[in-house]
Specification:
The protein is α+β, with helices and mostly antiparallel strands and 433 residues long. It contains 15 helices and 18 strands. Bound molecules: adenosine-5'-triphosphate and magnesium ion. The site of adenosine-5'-triphosphate has 17 residues, from strand 11, strand 17, strand 18 and helix 15.
Length: 433
């Protein structure tokens, strides 16, 4: 007879009577009379008890059940205060679907060992909790943009132009050609599409040849980007704030259990939803850094990580820092008419030292100005012809931003490193498994 399997969570909700579940052995211990197996599935864990008197002929099979074996179990469920999750199943029948011997991951293993065994470590409670939060974050981004009337749009990953700095490009061998790169951003291929769809977004991988290993850079990360026609600089900042608020709202609705498993202090996440973000210009930021942190930075220098961290740790919500000096920012950012030394670009700096989460700007819409800026940054405008057409035929005010999805996940989860925010992290030192 085919059994109807329920999830462990459903079995616990049923609370009594006969249930059939399937999952993997999380923990096991036993004697020659009793065996306790804690089974886990994607929803919960539950203690299951095998008694030798019920399984005289199959005891050696039960005795051999090890961590991470896959089991189907039928039994009687009941409340039991002593069991780890408050319920216990008294096993009446079982099948070992997939055996497991000497699962390599136990307690107290080094970070390197766990990274080498990432494919197995994904099953851990920590990684499972992260993966669930990750799923919520991706869903919330999608939901936010769709709800605001944005179309989902896709740009190529093989690209013939670059826009975020040549030193961080991954060149690929494209049938012998050496001038093709993996996308660092969708932007140059997104701007042409706003003339068709006006408001667009994507969630896609971006690739950056980051030379050093840091706690917030990956060489392959997921990038949520938006671009909109007819925008003002204020619109771009507003969407960034509303998007982050929406993501945090959904995580707090759906993932309290996971945050608890990760030991994350939820009171650090609540202000992101309830309080307005802090707006300041780069020039104000320099003043605050000088007055409150004793850091004297010459006007015109980009903020370094340490300075961003100090600044953002003064608040419990992100700082939206705007109007950076023109020369430290990309060629496509619009000069601010009110202060032409600066551009209408902004970075969202997360509290608790999690650093930059979003980078965005109003885009320069004037053809001659953008050509001039390209030349100033050492680029050849002729290679950007297709892009420059966006400024030739019906150019309009527009802007957009990019959000690093793993940066958000790391922040939500409170992880020390961004590596824990993605199933298989890639950085200069880590590209396997
Ligand atoms: P940083 O100064 O931290 O290197 P950036 O200025 O290079 O960031 P942008 O080019 O503005 O970043 O990219 C948009 C967003 O993409 C950033 O705000 C960040 O959240 C994310 N991001 C950028 N580089 C990486 C990376 N190497 N790994 C993970 N996320 C990244
Ligand atoms: Mg960078």
């Amino acid at each position: 007879m085919a059994q109807k399997y329920v999830s462990i969570l459903q079995a616990m909700q049923q609370g009594s009577g006969s249930v059939s579940i399937h999952g993997w052995v999380w923990r096991e211990r036993g004697s020659n009379k009793l065996k306790f197996v804690t089974l886990r599935d994607s929803t919960q864990v539950i203690q299951c008890v095998f008694e030798a008197v019920d399984f005289a002929s199959r005891w050696s099979e039960i005795d051999k059940i090890q961590v991470e074996a896959a089991l189907e179990i039928t039994g009687e469920i009941k409340k039991d205060e002593r069991a780890p999750t408050g319920y216990e199943i008294h096993v009446t029948d079982f099948t070992v679907v997939g055996k497991s011997e000497n699962f390599p991951i136990g307690k107290d293993l080094s970070v390197e060992f766990l990274a080498d065994n990432r494919h197995l470590w994904l099953r851990s409670r920590k990684m499972t909790a992260m993966l669930k939060i990750r799923s919520t974050v991706f869903g919330a981004i999608d939901e936010y943009f769709k709800g605001e009337g944005f179309y989902e749009y896709h740009s190529p990953i093989f690209q013939a132009v670059q826009c975020e700095g040549g030193s961080e490009l991954f060149k690929v061998d494209y049938f012998g050609r050496k001038d093709i790169f993996l996308a660092q951003t969708w932007q140059l291929y997104a701007e042409p599409a706003i003339f068709a769809l006006e408001k667009i977004y994507t969630i896609a991988p971006s690739f950056r040849a980051e030379k050093s290993v840091t706690s917030r850079h990956l060489t392959e990360y997921w990038h949520a980007e938006m671009e909109m026609a007819w925008s003002t600089f204020a619109d771009i900042q507003m969407h960034g704030e509303k998007l982050l608020k929406h993501i945090f709202t959904r995580v707090l609705e759906k993932n309290r259990g996971e945050l608890e498993i990760l030991g994350r202090d939820v009171s650090k996440l609540e202000p992101i939803v309830t309080k307005p973000f802090i707006h300041m210009t780069y020039t104000d930021a320099l003043k605050i850094l000088k007055e409150k942190c004793g850091m004297d930075i010459e006007w015109g220098k980009d903020l370094r990580t340490i300075e961003e961290e100090r600044l953002s740790s003064l608040y419990d919500v992100p700082v939206i820092c705007s109007n950076y000096p023109k020369k430290v920012k990309a060629f496509y950012m619009k000069e601010d008419p009110a202060d032409p030394r600066t551009v209408q670009g902004c970075d969202f700096l997360a509290p608790e030292g999690f650093g930059e989460i979003i980078g965005g700007s109003q885009r320069e819409e004037d053809l001659e100005e953008i050509k001039k800026r390209l030349v100033e940054q050492g680029e050849k405008p002729e290679e950007y012809e297709f892009y420059l057409d966006t400024r030739r035929y019906g150019s309009v005010p527009h802007g957009g931003f990019g959000l690093g999805v793993e940066r958000v996940i790391r922040w939500v989860c409170g992880f020390d490193t961004i590596k824990d925010a993605i199933p298989f992290p890639r950085n200069p030192e880590r590209f396997k498994p």
